[in-house]
Every structure is written in structure tokens, then in C-alpha cells.
Amino acid sequence: MKNKICISVDEETRFMIDYIKKTNNPKTIAIVSNTDAFGQTYLNSFSKNWDGEKYVFSHDLTERDFSTTIEKIKARNIKTIYISMNAAPTLIFLNQLKKQNYNGNIYMNWLGESNVLLAENVSEGIIYSYPYKPSNNPKDMVKYNKLKGNSLSLHPLTMNSYDAVYLYAELLKECNEDDISCLTSKIQTVHFKGLGGDISFNSNGIANRQLYLKQIKNGEGVYL
Q: Does some domain include residue 146?
């Protein structure tokens, strides 16, 4: 049974591209990524869906000097950057952008919710796509806050895992765990209120989820 409770990367990058074009419609964009699977997956998807001019800058996970990339971005007067890097190198990159007085628009994926970035003022103003909007049900908020603990936010993958476990438990009320046919059939009829919002599935077993935009303001991710 191949089902996905998370939104596809293509859907997420198309959503972000639509927003970027509607708000400032840049002719050129810089995509700054890591060379690992995570970075390249978002880079490839964004590049495929972006139909304007783009400059790609890929960096190894261990790289800590982004000065050459920043100089090239500034030399080309690129005012829009999309980041698909892990949290630690992103933080270093943002610090170096600030030191070089870059004042363009910066976007990224849900990793913008990382506690590493929320804790630093260099991430202020970044806009990022986010695949969840936690329930405002008091009982759900108790669960959310318990999972979050002392962190500034609850990692999206934690919410995703939490919902997946409870969803599977719901399915087992009607199906045996080894009855793939039953599980596959029943999941298409599911309308599940998870910790990360309402969940249903299409005929391909992919979750129908709404995407959101958030912006870092005063060290917090705020829904737009």
C-alpha cells in the first residue's frame, strides 16, 4: 500500500512560485541549494516549475563560505532568492547576506520553521511554504504543546508522523493490518482531523492537504 500523508514537493514548489509571481513577479531568481538529496529534490522541482530566468548555486553540506555566491547574486542585481538548504548552512548563508547588506526577497520551503532559524534575527521577514495548520481545538492544542515542549515550534515531520500513526489506528478499526486491499480501499474514504489539519486522500492514495504561507516575524512563524 503506497499512500502519502504529506504534500508532494512539486505541489509545494508550484504553490510558492505562484505566490512569488503574484507578489513581486521577478524576471530573475537565484536558487541556493545543498547538494544532498533534500536540497536537490527541491532545486530540481523549483527549477522545473520556474519558467523565468534563474541562476543556480549548489553547495556542499560542509561549505561555510558563501561570499562568492552572494557576490554573484548582487552583481546580477537579483532581488529574489529561493533557498533549498538545510537549517545550519541556511543560517550561515543568511548571516553572510546580512553582512553584505542584501535587501532582496527571500523564500524557502517548510524548513523555514526550523528552531535554528526562528531563534536568529537574520531570518526576519523570510516567507516559506508550510503544509500544516494546527487544529485550534483545545484538546488538539494540548497534544500539540506537549509534543512541542520547549521548542519554538513543532517540526512539520513530527506532526506528520503523529497524524500517520493515528490515521493507521483508525484504519485498523475496520481492516486487518495485513489486508492491503481493505486498507487501500478504506483510506480513500477517510476524512481525518489530524493534529496538522484535515486530511483526506485522493484515488492515488495521496493526501489532500492545503498549503499555507508563513513569514518569520519577531522570531515566530506567522501565517499569512
A: yes
